[in-house]
Amino acid sequence: MGHTQSLANWFTARNPPELDSGYAARVSTPPRPLNDRPVPTAPPDFAGRRVISFESRRATEMASLIQRHGGVPITAPALREVPIERNERALDFARRLAGAELDVVILMTGAGTRALVAEAAPALEPGPDSGGAPGGEGEASAQGMSRMTAALSSVQLVARGPKPAAALRELGLTRFLTVPEPNTWREILDVVRGLGDLSGKRIAVQEHGAPSHELYAGLEAAGARVTPVPAYRWALPEDTAPLRRALHALADGGAAITLFTSRAQVEHALLVAAEEGLVARLRERLARGVVASIGPVCTEALRAEGIEPDFEPEHPKMGHLVKAAAARSGEILARKGNQGDAPLSAQSS
């Protein structure tokens, strides 16, 4: 009996029983106390604060984003895209493009790309001598659009970002270069310089509401011949009452968070503020509140007006801007000693 037991003990020592895979973890790692377990990070939240947005074309989307992040949106459109009637420069651009008189075309915005193609295509309509009929007043026929697309496919296309890239794909154009973030004139210049020697190169630039003087100067310094082509121009909204109310709310302390998404928004907001006699109070309130800038170009415009933005988002996109503002506004306001929104006055409500 004793001899048999000793053999069994020897066998067990040499061949221990298999344990399930979680056994070692259960016996070697004691459970963490409840208060030591990871706590989920709270989602970014404006905590019910008012947030001023100067967005126009995407105002509804911006307001929805602010609401989803716990804010109360104050929508104050600062811009209006005004089409250029009988855009002779666009028509001349189309003729030069079809005549192989351009080497590179830089497209700055999605809306501008679509507008430029629509405004330029009538120049390529078949004339009476070829048996075709020109399009109606400023309208491009399918044949004019087809010729415009073919002409664009014959040159090097550069899209400033995803929106003009999407507009090109809508036309069936897939061979183009896309400028990386943050999509400023500096990145555009780097991409175009990467094409090689620019001496004598003929480059057309689709303007986005206003000239890009820095880009033109950089291209010309590299030896290129630049042709700006406007597709629309920026103007104030026909109804500026919401913008004026928002500026009064900001000057009165009724809102402490502002979101800027373009240079033109900054310029127009300050223009209307000057008309209302609010510039000094506005700058003071902005310094004590949260100023969010979507990217470097917008930041440069703010600094040119003596306004220092608190941050730019990681990516120059509207959703990233709102999320970052929701996440950081509380800390920024606390650091600046800002107690939050004051009641809205009758003028700003």
TrEMBL record:
<feature type="region of interest" description="Disordered">
    <location>
        <begin position="1"/>
        <end position="47"/>
    </location>
</feature>
<feature type="domain" description="Tetrapyrrole biosynthesis uroporphyrinogen III synthase">
    <location>
        <begin position="61"/>
        <end position="322"/>
    </location>
</feature>
<feature type="compositionally biased region" description="Gly residues">
    <location>
        <begin position="129"/>
        <end position="138"/>
    </location>
</feature>
<dbReference type="GO" id="GO:0006780">
    <property type="term" value="P:uroporphyrinogen III biosynthetic process"/>
</dbReference>
<protein>
    <submittedName>
        <fullName>Transcriptional regulator</fullName>
    </submittedName>
</protein>
<dbReference type="InterPro" id="IPR003754">
    <property type="entry name" value="4pyrrol_synth_uPrphyn_synth"/>
</dbReference>
<feature type="region of interest" description="Disordered">
    <location>
        <begin position="123"/>
        <end position="146"/>
    </location>
</feature>
<dbReference type="GO" id="GO:0004852">
    <property type="term" value="F:uroporphyrinogen-III synthase activity"/>
</dbReference>
<dbReference type="InterPro" id="IPR039793">
    <property type="entry name" value="UROS/Hem4"/>
</dbReference>
<dbReference type="InterPro" id="IPR036108">
    <property type="entry name" value="4pyrrol_syn_uPrphyn_synt_sf"/>
</dbReference>
<dbReference type="Pfam" id="PF02602">
    <property type="entry name" value="HEM4"/>
</dbReference>
